[in-house]
Write a structure and sequence with these properties.
Structural class: alpha+beta
Strand order of the largest sheet: 11-10-9-8-7-16
Number of helices: 14
Shape: globular
Number of strands: 19
Length: 480
């Protein structure tokens, strides 16, 4: 393997395979990747970096590459964040490996992965060549297929697609302007009871970004849980069948697609980040899952197993929610709900899906939170209201979104709900056969964080670091 290493492996990995001091660690990552690939437990949440199997990146870190090379402390922090993302993914990949694919124990394999990753990163930082190669490799390709767009004659087919998008947006505005459709019942799901953090406390937590070499406000897991509980929305769901009852994601015996346990209302939470100039803004993402989107007719190409609502709040440095936006877990229906502190910028192309805002929200006072009215079946948001204090006896629990990357199965093994490409098997939609010219693989299928392309016309991702900066003029108040 070493004799052919330069032909088989590229970048820093090839040089590490030739180094007597680093060879064992480089070989470890080669072997680990082979075992993960053979078992199908690869995790797609973060992007692998060519030549650096011990590093991964996301769109925020990729956007911070220029800042990373400014000083020795910033490049070291940048490298450690890349290594931390890989280690995070490796934890789930190793947890999901079958017993026969482990080198030793799970704890031992994970410890060796961490130790070797730290050694290899330390070696990369000692040379200008290693640092430059690392920064150059820290990029995230977009989730659009240029080949599909070429074959689908995208410059022509985008025209009727854009017309269809505009019609749907007009219908959605009418829905928001009217009254919710009558249904047999509505159930309101509210956040867990507890004492929310004050804005001053949140402001203090966010101020840490001023002292971080990369400007990112880093919170502990406990602090993130407290912030997530403080800004969690209520969901007012129209219920016409079991498909309208949200719940926890579970594996059932013999099933290749996860199921939803509606006896346990759960909202999955994770942080994300957006850049605005030199400021990195903290966002909290809330994901509500339903068992299906039922067919509205015999030829409903949008129906299928699993559905959901993804709601995100972006916080200003002073702790006030400055903007909300939402998608479904397929990346579809990206809608913005700006506050008076977020003013829309004009679209560069009238056909491009830019920043559809069906409703503006008022500035939220402390202890106020949004209430999302959710339609039956389609699970579209129909209206967003505001409530203060307790508003329901039905409460959901908050769980880490990352739990979905390794769930227990009844046979004692563990498995991610996402496949190595970041899709949920069995959640495919019929629309993929018609919408492929827009360049999105398996349009309509539920997918993992970091894999959400959100526009058919244009290119846009839910986790783009410059998503808000390009589309809104934000009033950050005391921001740097």
């Amino acid at each position: 393997m070493l004799a052919s290493g330069c032909a088989t492996f590229d970048g820093q990995l090839a040089s590490h395979l030739e180094s007597p001091q680093l060879r064992d660690c480089a070989q470890w990552f080669v072997a680990l990747d082979e075992r993960v690939a053979a078992a199908g437990t690869g995790d797609a949440q973060y992007t692998r970096m060519p030549g650096f199997p011990y590093l991964r990146t996301d769109r925020l870190l990729a956007s911070l590459r220029e800042r990373a090379v400014e000083r020795p402390d910033t490049i070291a922090t940048f490298a450690e964040r890349l290594r931390a993302l890989d280690y995070d993914a490796r934890r789930y990949e190793i947890d999901n490996l079958p017993e026969g694919s482990l080198h030793g124990t799970r704890a031992g394999d994970l410890h060796h992965t961490q130790d070797c990753g730290m050694q290899l990163v330390a070696a990369d930082l000692t040379s200008a060549r290693g640092r430059d190669a690392m920064v150059a490799a820290a990029q995230v390709p977009d989730d659009y297929s240029t080949a599909m767009r070429v074959l689908g004659l995208y410059p022509l087919t985008r025209i009727p697609f854009a017309s269809g998008v505009r019609r749907f947006e007009a219908e959605t505005r009418e829905t928001f302007a009217g009254e919710p459709k009558p249904v047999a019942s509505r159930v309101r799901y509210s956040p867990p009871a507890g004492r929310p953090l004050s804005r001053d406390v949140v402001k203090g937590l966010l101020a840490r970004g001023q002292f971080d070499p990369l400007g990112q406000p880093i919170l502990s897991e406990r602090e993130l849980e407290a912030v997530a509980a403080t800004y969690a929305p209520s969901f007012d769901v129209a219920v016409a069948g079991d498909y309208d009852r949200p719940g926890a994601v579970r594996w059932r015996r013999g099933e290749s697609t996860p199921a939803i346990d509606a006896t346990e209302p759960v909202v999955y939470v994770r942080p994300s980040y957006a850049r605005y100039g030199e400021t990195v803004l903290l966002q909290i993402v809330y994901v509500l899952w339903f068992s299906e989107r039922p067919a509205g007719s015999a030829f409903d190409i949008l129906s299928g197993r699993l559905d959901g609502v993804v709601w995100r709040v972006t916080l200003a440095p002073d702790g006030e929610p400055i903007l909300h936006d939402s998608i479904h877990p397929c990346g579809c229906y990206h809608w913005f709900f700006p506050s008076p502190r977020a003013r829309p910028r004009p679209a560069p192309d009238e056909r491009e899906e830019w920043a559809f805002a069906p409703q503006e929200l008022p500035r939220l006072a402390e202890r106020e939170r949004p209430v999302l009215s959710i339609a039956s079946g389609t699970h579209f948001i129909e209206h967003v209201g505001v409530v203060s204090g307790p508003d329901s006896l039905v409460r959901y629990s908050l769980r880490r979104y990352d739990e979905l990357r390794s769930l227990s199965r009844l046979d004692g093994t563990r498995r991610s709900v996402f496949d190595p490409r970041g899709f949920i098997a069995g959640s495919e939609r019929g629309e993929r056969f018609l919408y492929w010219p827009m360049g999105i693989a398996s349009a309509g299928a539920m997918r993992q964080w970091g894999r959400h392309a959100t526009a058919f016309v244009g290119r846009r991702h839910f986790d783009d670091a410059d998503l808000l900066e390009r589309r809104f003029e934000l009033d950050l108040g005391e921001a740097r």
